[in-house]
Design the sequence.
């Protein structure tokens, strides 16, 4: 399916896979594609996101907060632990303070980067559709971004909201950069 | 849940859902702490056998479980 992808768009996908693995996540999801879009040199997709104030570091921090590496306590766990009198944030903060941030570095998922979540697959299919609609001969990072904004996934919608960006605005900016009206 | 009395009630298991979730969360927290401290021990030059003795498991078990993290976090090279 990747033969029609531009070099930049391929970079997005391979970077997404590497990000998922480094975060200790078992599969590549739309949030990792968003991180891939922020990789230098992927093209229009990155420009749009940078203009909206998104950087790879900001997005990665938010992704890590929302979905810890597999095996690590989740945000839900924090609430459950409070019911037995444990402040998870306090425990994690102390651990990081005494042992350093690397002490909790996630172990890259062994199969990370191979498997794509259904939403990530849908995003790439939507990217193809956007490329066809825009009469582009190849799928570029801008189409991946447009696909991502269309995938209607709760997780990615919440992530973008947390980062203070509006999907419709991103879509408009992307299209105007491509010389098309939204 | 606000007061200490509420916390004590939920922890003592009146509601199975709350209690089970707390137990499961504690397990993940324990795993995270163990992982971080094994890396810490390795960075300080502990052998797998020494770590296994404290954890009360075999050297093979602790190695199999933590060797991958050890590589990422640069343990055992002191």
Sequence:
């Amino acid at each position: 399916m990747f033969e029609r992808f531009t070099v930049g768009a391929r970079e997005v996908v391979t970077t997404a896979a590497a990000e998922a693995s480094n975060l200790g996540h078992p599969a590549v999801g739309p949030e990792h594609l968003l991180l891939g879009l922020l990789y230098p040199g992927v093209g229009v997709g990155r420009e749009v996101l940078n203009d909206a104030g998104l950087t790879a570091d900001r997005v990665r921090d938010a992704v890590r907060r929302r979905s810890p590496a597999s095996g690590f306590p989740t945000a839900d766990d924090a609430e459950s632990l409070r019911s037995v009198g444990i402040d998870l944030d306090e425990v994690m903060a102390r651990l990081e303070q005494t042992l350093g941030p690397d002490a909790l570095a996630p172990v890259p998922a062994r199969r990370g980067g191979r498997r794509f979540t259904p939403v990530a697959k849908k995003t790439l299919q939507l990217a193809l559709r956007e490329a066809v609609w825009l009469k582009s001969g190849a799928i570029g990072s801008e189409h991946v971004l447009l696909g991502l904004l269309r995938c209607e996934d709760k997780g990615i919608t919440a992530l973008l909201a947390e980062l203070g960006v509006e999907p419709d605005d991103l879509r408009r900016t992307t299209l105007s950069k491509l010389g098309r009206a939204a | 849940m606000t007061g200490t009395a509420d916390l004590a009630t939920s922890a003592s298991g009146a509601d199975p859902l709350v209690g089970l979730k707390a137990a499961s969360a504690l397990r993940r927290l324990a795993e995270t702490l163990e992982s971080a401290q094994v890396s810490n021990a390795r960075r300080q030059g502990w052998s797998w056998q020494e770590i296994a003795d404290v954890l009360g498991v075999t050297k093979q078990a602790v190695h199999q479980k933590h060797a991958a993290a050890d590589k990422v976090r640069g343990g055992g090279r002191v």
Summary: The helical segments of chain B are 4-11, 16-43, 48-55, 59-72.
